């Protein structure tokens, strides 16, 4: 589990195929300011919001293996570049964001990213099937960052929601690299997921699983 509070911005340095085109890849990640002193082989680290398992570890760097399934369901894990990093939550940690599983539910597309006063407005078009999980003042994870939804608008081609990004968030995460047309990893709120399951089980109507 994670909180969606980015601990550091690292960098994917190399992407090495693990086999043929249908296989996954191994990522070598420079950890940046992320403290690896308490990280061991097999521990979990969220990279751009996707939970990955550390397979090798050395000073300032760690490797993870990313399956083809994960590559097909995420963005930002298939090429070198800056990435948001967060170590797995400990039970004694402060929950500064919200409970995050590190399992990407779908991809969104940036519609707008522009300054508004001292902050930035970020608008994202989410797939229609994720729209019912987005609510005013609810939580959502974008590229591993826990954020609060400001507005929600259901449209024919999906659901557009907006977020207000304070300067600190823009400065210390990779969200400052966003632009209209870019895709982002989305994870819906765990509570919304369980509420949906309880409602579907109680009314006898089967709904597609995410």
Give a concise summary.
With 210 residues, this protein is mainly beta. 14% of the residues lie in helices and 43% in strands.
Reading off the top of the CATH hierarchy, the class of the largest domain is best stated as Mainly Beta
In helices, the fraction of residues equals 10-25%
Task: Determine the strand fraction and express it as a percent band.
Answer: 35-45%
Quaternary state of the chains = single chain
CATH architecture of the largest domain: Beta Barrel
Summed over residues and divided by their number, the pLDDT gives a mean of 93
Instruction: Enumerate how many helices there are, as a single number.
Output: 4
What gap, in angstroms, lies between the N and C termini? 18 Å
Q: Tell me, what's the shape?
A: globular
**Structural class by helix and strand composition:** mainly beta
The gyration radius over C-alpha positions equals: 17 Å
Tell me the major beta sheet: 6 strands, antiparallel, barrel
Your description of this structure?
The protein has 210 residues and is mainly beta. It has 2 domains: 8-87, Beta Barrel (Elongation Factor Tu (Ef-tu), domain 3); 106-203, Elongation Factor Tu (Ef-tu), domain 3 (Beta Barrel), CATH 2.40.30. It has helices spanning 68-73, 128-131, 167-172, 190-203, and strands at residues 8-17, 25-30, 44-47, 50-58, 61-66, 81-87, 106-116, 119-126, 139-142, 145-155, 158-165, 183-188. A 6-stranded antiparallel β-barrel has the order 1-2-5-4-3-6. A 6-stranded antiparallel β-barrel has the order 7-8-11-10-9-12. It is globular. The chain starts with 7 loop residues before the first strand and ends in a 7-residue tail after the last helix. The relative contact order is 0.18.
């Amino acid at each position: 589990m994670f909180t969606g509070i980015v601990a550091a911005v690292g960098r994917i340095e190399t992407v090495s195929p693990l086999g043929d085109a249908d296989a996954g890849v191994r990522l070598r990640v420079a950890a940046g300011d992320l403290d690896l002193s308490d990280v061991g082989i097999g521990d979990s680290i969220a990279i751009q919001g996707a939970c990955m398992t550390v397979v090798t570890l050395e000073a300032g760097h760690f490797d993870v293996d990313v399956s083809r399934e994960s590559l097909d369901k995420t963005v930002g894990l298939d090429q070198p570049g800056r990435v948001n990093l967060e170590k797995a939550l400990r039970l004694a940690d402060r929950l500064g964001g919200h409970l995050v599983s590190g399992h990407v539910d779908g991809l969104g597309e940036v519609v707008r990213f522009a300054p508004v006063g001292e902050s930035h407005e970020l608008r994202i078009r989410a797939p229609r099937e994720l729209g019912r999980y987005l609510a005013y003042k609810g939580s959502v994870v974008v590229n591993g960052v826990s954020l609060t939804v400001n507005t929600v608008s259901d449209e024919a081609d999906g659901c557009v929601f907006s977020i207000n990004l304070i300067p600190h968030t823009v400065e210390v995460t990779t969200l400052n690299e966003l632009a209209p047309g870019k895709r982002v990893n989305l994870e819906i709120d765990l509570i919304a997921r369980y509420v949906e399951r309880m409602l579907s089980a109680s009314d006898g109507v089967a709904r597609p699983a995410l």
